[in-house]
Amino acid sequence: MRIIAGRLKGLRLALPAKAKIRPTAERVREALFSALGSAVCGVDALDLFAGTGSLGLEALSRGAGSVTMVEKDLILARNLTGLCAGLKMFDSVKVLNMDAGKSVDYLSSRRVKFGLIFLDPPYDSDWISRLALDASFLGLLSPGGLIVVERTGLSKDIQDFEGQGLETTFSRKYGATMLEIFTSVNSELS
Fold first, then answer.
1. Which CATH class is domain 26-189?
2. What distance in Å separates the CA atoms of residue 16 and residue 33, rounded to the nearest whole number?
3. Ordered strands of the 44-47 beta sheet
4. Structure confidence by residue, pLDDT tens digits, 104-150
């Protein structure tokens, strides 16, 4: 697995042997970042279920101003921290080793805002439904910001975002993976 484009192009991302994650396939990432285009440039991004960091680091490589990566698994979080330290990205990357729910509370209490949020939880979880109804999570999104959701194409959860001041601006299926981009349409999210 590697970073596809930008200043970190070609950077290999390690996947620890015992990790129970499903990294975003390169072709799916390429399609996603083609759809995002220049919307990545200069924004602060949140990669809520970071895993290998492929989404957050790809965003950083393509011009995001900063990336906060949240990963509950200690081994994966340490791997991300080591990778970022080796690349001397102390100013532009923060790795939080905590549960997604706790990280939302933590970031919300600090009134942090993101122009781009990646939401790629385990496919068998209910995180998408839970976060779509969480005012603290929605409050992390800057006005006009984007939420990128990666899920199984069989899931029905996604309609939950439609009634929360967000509208679908992109939706495509790639094999068993569904990618959707939601844009905030009002200032009530801030």
1. alpha beta
2. 25
3. 93-96, 66-70, 44-47, 114-119, 141-152, 177-184, 166-174
4. 999 999 999 999 999 999 878 889 888 988 999 999 999 999 999 99
